[in-house]
Amino acid sequence: MSTEIPPTPPSPGVGLRRKPKTLPTLPLSAFSPPNSSTGERFPRPPTPSRVHPVQVVDAHVVVVGDATASLESWKKEAGKALGGLIGKGGVVLALPATASDELLAGLQLRDTGGQGLPEIAGVPVLSLMVPFEMHSAQHEMPAYTSGLSIPISLATSFSKSTPESIVGLKWALSQGRPVDIDVRAALSDSALQGFLDLLDEAVADLPSVPPIIISSVLPPPHDLSLSIVKLMKHPSYHTFQTQTAALSLVPGLYIKFLPPSWDAPTPATPSDLANDTVDDANSKQSKEWKRRIKMYLGPVIEAFGFERIIFGSSPSPASHSASLAGDWYEIARESLAELGADQETQDTGADQETGIDLVFASNAEKVYGNRAKK
Known about the structure:
Residues 1-51 are annotated as: Disordered. It is a single chain. By secondary structure, the chain is an alpha/beta fold. It has one domain (46-368): Metal-dependent hydrolases (TIM Barrel), CATH 3.20.20.140. The protein has helices at 67-86, 101-105, 163-174, 189-203, 228-233, 235-248, 280-304, 325-338, 355-368; strands at residues 57-62, 90-94, 119-120, 123-131, 152-158, 179-183, 212-218, 253-257, 309-311, 345-347, 352-354. A hairpin with a 2-residue loop joins strand 3 and strand 4 (123-131). It is globular and about 50 Å long.
């Protein structure tokens, strides 16, 4: 069974870069929970805490050391809400640079004969992310990927554009597999231009281009001491809006929605409304995080649409901020719901899907699981 996904052809004779579009300014009301004083003539939207996707594909579960132990730990972190929905979707495992034949041999990720996804520690695995060094002089697929029937993508990081990185990214894209790029450089105007130039040159002369997925951009690094009101007028926020618009114009580019690197742990959140044991201070912190996350989600949704955002629960390996999978799921889900993702539907061909379902499952299935080709 082929693990390659249908490529996205570049527009004939046109590079990746376009003139960024101007994004609308969102009102402060967009970053607060819905007003409960709506008249009886109008139906109230569902309470965000009650809005869940039909299923979840966690598209970023980082393997630390042993994959089985990592997924056992992930199951404990996920809790009932996330763990109960993942059985219908699956996870995308981000393998370490030390991955080997011995590691894969113990995972039994071979053909299951059409009886569903292969599992590790009882967790269904949709795809594997295989690391490669973009700045390396030589590139080849690791030997341990030979014979795997499970879909494979490639993953790397970006710090600056070099001639070697262009060659490395072009090699990865020529494999016809999705390519994840963890953006580990502060995107100043010049750095953003270098990144766009890198993408532009890497796809040049390729007959087709597979999906490119970037992370550590949503949400970007941020100073929690900056108030919401000041953030809206801060130069860094306006730069983020402009850069988001520019990135969204790259064909076939997706953005991962991962725990932020904010030098603070992801706040714990209650699993249901009946839980009265959650510390009040922690609950306030969770609400504050959601307000800030929505500040960044708004422009990304406007620019990328729900169909090019992909959820993942593990922070970037470069992040020093602790985050539990279940806590991040709750905050990410409620933030999307409060921005109306449960009300927005997209025609994906066979079905009408809400923004919540696209972000938390369908987009990852399409990119990593080859849903479109199947």
